Amino acid sequence: MSVTKSIKKPFKLLLINPMNAYKKGIYHDKVYSVPPLGLGTLAALTPDNWDIEIFDENFEEFIFKKADLVAITALTSQVTRAYEIAKVYQENNIPTILGGIHASMMPDEAINYVDVVLNGEAEGIWKELINDFENGKLKSYYKAGLVSMDKSPPPRIDLYNSDYALGSLQTTRGCPNNCDFCTVHVINGHKYRYKSTEQAVNEYIDIPQDRVYVVDDDFYGYTKESAKRAIDFCKGIIKSGVKKDWYTFTSMHLAKDEEALKYMSEAGCRMVLLGIESEFASQLAASHKRVNLKVGVENYEKIYDAFHHNGIAVLGSFIFGLDSDTPESIMNRADYYINSGVDCIQAGMLTPLPGSETFFRLQQENRIIYNNFPEDWDKYTFFNNIIEPINMSPEEFVEVMNTAWEKIYDLKIMKRKYLQTLKATKNPITAGWAFSTNLNYRNTIFEGQKKNLNFTQSYRELTSIYVEY
Length: 469
Ligand code: B12
Ligand code: SF4
Known about the structure:
By secondary structure, the chain is α/β, with parallel strands linked by helices.
């Protein structure tokens, strides 16, 4: 019998995924959490002479762990916590690095709380940073450009917590649009970049979970080449014979491509998130949401139908609190959703994400209420009010949103939507996925106010509705 001795490596890298501590408006259900792809990618880029561990606050209570280098990722909503954690390591003389979306949008802030800031995508610069550390020459600021996705290795999924119920995969980056409220085009650029079909399909196959979140900015893209790429990816999955269900982000104009929809469906796509934002052309124009204007609000129902015919549900992402919104228009948007073909909804409040046009504008207009940074970043979850609206007071806005959410996520409405999705898509997995998405938002928004329902509880209810149907 041979015994493999584990060889102690000279360096230890601790990668940290912090958890928002303010809690309101953040998923806490393990069923819906998504593995930290940025950290998995960072681990894959790290040379072999490093021991690597991912410490993930989604699953573990914070404890201090020894390491030579600590690298933390953070969205804006996580950064307040990231800074707290960095302080603990700095007090123990362990160098800390912050990367990810917030550090890339607010590097001048971040450098006050960590030793090193990495602005941008790690792929092009991480090896240089590690080399600098090994040679005692770590700099305080690294700026990375956008990389070709050939440089993005398959993430170290072996380091993720094995309790994640969803897998995650990124096949493309970039979006050619410039919507005011969004930072995706600022972070990932306008150019559409993608992994080779072979790599993307292999990563998909290797994911241990049977449900996958394909976290692309726009899975389908805007050109013939991007459409072909999407179809090739689906064909690759179909050819592999691997059966999983997945969900992704895309734009409405995919609806006209019947061939792509068919392949996506056959490859296991059960739901797409569409940035619908508003049912009014004037509001889309004011937010520079050109892609929806091109499709035309009058054609929205045809778009939803096209997805449904292919067994795919529509998760509509809507913004509540746009400048021209009033208490009435907010309630009308809730009614629009209820009476529309949209299967489930992300009903977020307009949130000025740092780096977005909306942030710069509202800051200039002195309309950002939560502006005590970095403490207030943890409220930037889309489910807390951050702004001073124009046509109502902040208190009225909060009140009307609570009424709208009560209506949207009422269990009776959720069950009605489930049946509607089932009828339209003829696919119980699709309908179950859309229902559980609504359930997740319900639990997130009403955390601490209403009894949380878990998926098993609701699944029993779904089964009984299904039997009736
Ligand atoms: C998957 C995803 C999620 C997942 C997982 C999030 C997570 N923590 O990983 C879930 C569903 C949980 C989620 C939730 C939310 N999300 Co989200 N989400 C995404 C999405 C679609 C993809 C992120 C991703 O995995 N990218 C792939 C990886 C490889 O990229 P990456 O993480 O950016 O990492 C690269 C670089 O940033 C860098 N890097 C990253 N970390 C580090 C660390 C170090 C040390 C270094 C050196 C480098 C580095 O290198 C990596 C490789 O290039 C993005 C959209 C987007 N395009 O980014 C929105 C996005 C990140 N989400 C966003 C938001 C607003 C939210 C929510 C607040 C919304 C909500 N309430 O539902 C919550 C907040 C959750 C929380 N924990 O606080 C915003 C964030 C904006 C911001 N300034 O923070 C984005 C950008 C979308 C948008 N609307 O603009 N989200
Ligand atoms: S909201 Fe969607 S379409 Fe608009 S810039 Fe962001 S990712 Fe692109």
